Amino acid sequence: MTRKMWGFIPVLNCSQLLSFCPPQSRPSVIRIATPDLRENSLQRTMSDQAFVTLATNDSYAKGAMVLGQSLRKHNTTKKLVALIGPHVAEPCRDALGSIFDEVCVVDVVDSGDVAHLALMKRPDLGVTFTKLHCWTLTHYSKCVFMDADTLVLSNIDELFEREELSAAPDPGWPDCFNSGVFVFRPSNETHEKLLAFCGEKGSFDGGDQGVLNSFFNTWATADISKHLPFIYNLSSVSIYSYLPAFKEYGRNAKVVHFLGKVKPWNYSYDAQKGEVRGHALTPDQGQLHPDYLLLWWQLYSKSVMPVLQQAYGETPFNSGLTEESENGQLQEDVSAQPEASAPPPQKVSSEVRKQRWEAGQIDYMGDDSFANIERKLDSFLK
What family does this chain come from, according to its entry (predicted)? Predict the structure, then answer.
């Protein structure tokens, strides 16, 4: 993208500045024509509605591929669109192109659109601006945005019966919606308003969720039909905060969202044993539900790895899967493993565990693991 250098910026408000912003300094979208490699492509229903996701690097591209294959697996009739940053490697782009109907390269605004960000005076919101590109997909009448760290568990095409902006409550503050899954109508007008709003108001949480909640600020009170049930955006880490509810309603979950610092692709997977190799977690990183984590890796191993292998060819890449050495021993990605020399955790009293739990210092991999909590709860419910 051609960059404009602005030698002088008059003292104007953000809305006025936007009106003077030349088209070439605005975020650009380059659509990649990709061959349809799916055998059942002719059976798909053509539609002007689409599921949209975003990947700004190769790791999130893998997540997007799993999301796309999970939507395909559950027979969606909608188009699939992937917005990707310019730093996503060519093989990953090719792999995405074999899963998604449309792959669009969008400028990562904090590096590719310096002039625009200078006008907006909000360089900290670069990735947020990138996500807002989804409103420029005006050749679709309605879309559902899904973060690349989500996984579809059943067909969710019924979401297109909802209106903008429909979303599920955030587990941390239910009067805010979580922006990992939301229904929207592409509109250049809305896109311009969102950009102007970002420049004037910023984001109360530093990301897209803060911007969108402030912009669509009547979500909590105006129209209950725009409140998606939590099963459409089930936070995998929130399961631990209300385990009885998960035991009662979890079987109805349609979308799981791997919130937190540690993502499924940060683990490794033993395909022969069908086991996910654990990550060294600290209490503030959270713990992903093992069943959903295993589902992610099973789908990755079966439906994404073959696509990546074809795209990369002879070029090596980090697959996340364990491999056999010449002597038949499994070689694991040691970077995803806890330090072998780490001392075993010391046993603590129930009182100390309670104090640590209340302080948010939860031993997800030990005494406070999901299995132990579930076992304790079952003993009370019998």
Answer: Belongs to the glycosyltransferase 8 family. Glycogenin subfamily.
